[in-house]
Amino acid sequence: MGEHIPVVTLDGPAGAGKGTVSRALAQRLGWRYLDSGAIYRSLAVAVMDEGLALEDRAGISAIARTMELRFESDPSPRVILNGRDISDRISSETCGNLTSKIAALGPVRQALLQKQREFRQPPGLVADGRDMGTVVFPDADYKIFLTASAEERAFRRHKQLKEKGIDVSLTRLTNEIEERDQRDRERSEAPLKMADDAFLVDSSAMSIEQVITCCLRWIETSRLR
Ligand code: C5P
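Structure tokens for the assembled complex are given below, as produced in the milestone run.
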């Protein structure tokens, strides 16, 4: 048995605030951060660039196995795919929607499993996604499921996109988010669902700071138990 490396998992639907909260948790704990959504999104970019059809499961899985991904955090979070900076491309809703179609393919998820587990390095890891606590790190020490109402999530995403200079209609965004969540929840492979032993946080009426404090407190109390 090697050294035990603690893991916090943060799962939940799109726009619940997982990214901001898990980055903050990683920073406060001094642990590493895994943005598993960015891995799936990068794969979608690679699939688009290669011009592969969704039906080409073998081709997509091959890319998933061979793509070279690098995450940089200094001076700002960047994602480098095969040497090229794709940070701006992965954040679009179009990319998110294609990603959730690709992410439903079993062999693709299998091909990305090891890549994600490699992020578990000392002194600890905060992992953000849909199946972190159920499939990728089922033995995680602290599992959190972060959710919010669909309206609130669409509203937040809308604000986030606007800040990036991307203008989309709120109604369209709400529909797309609901469609994406439904696809993520209903897929047979690693569907979005709360782990039995997860701590549920509904952030609909909470500020990001309140969510971070609430999660940190819960981690601290669980640690003492
Ligand atoms: O979290 P983010 O919005 O970046 O994720 C984009 C999509 O990637 C999700 O809608 C989901 O389909 C997929 N995903 C996944 N499993 C994860 C993380 C993301 O299936 N662990």
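The beta strands are 7-11, 32-35, 69-72, 78-81, 84-85, 125-129, 142-147, 199-202. The pocket of cytidine-5'-monophosphate is lined by residues 14, 36-37, 40-41, 96, 99-100, 103, 129-131, 180, 184 (CB under 6 Å). Further analysis is deferred to the final report.
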